[in-house]
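Worked problem 6 (solution included).
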Amino acid sequence: MLAVSAAFVVWTWIRPYEWRADPGAKAVIVASSVRQDHSYHWLDIRLGIRDGMEHDLRKPVFLETAGRSRIEPADTTLAGDTDRPIDELFLRFWLEEGDFDGPIHLHLNDGRLNVRSGSGEPRLHRNGEASFQTRRW
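Solution. The predicted structure is:
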């Protein structure tokens, strides 16, 4: 029983957020989280830049939702070091209730990543927050 539990924990941490992420995006989603703020929500997305790729700061980054066609980030944080100036991106979006009425896609560089495949208000914990390691929420 312990081996099965350990295998599940390992599987949960090593599986990708999205199995067939668009290589044109030059990044993969590592995790996402939603936090309720009155009748609105903050959606945070953590991205890892693919090895050998560079994020193009000149290209627009935006979400595409069922409720609105284009939502730009309210905040963008870049992380890196001297070898790779940008190896992670942290994006924050301000969403309305209707933005959860269908799948959510992130457009960056020359690709599109699936942030969420579900529909409807996300299930949040009692503290009004939830974290996701996969696009199925």
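Discussion: The chain has one helix and eight strands.
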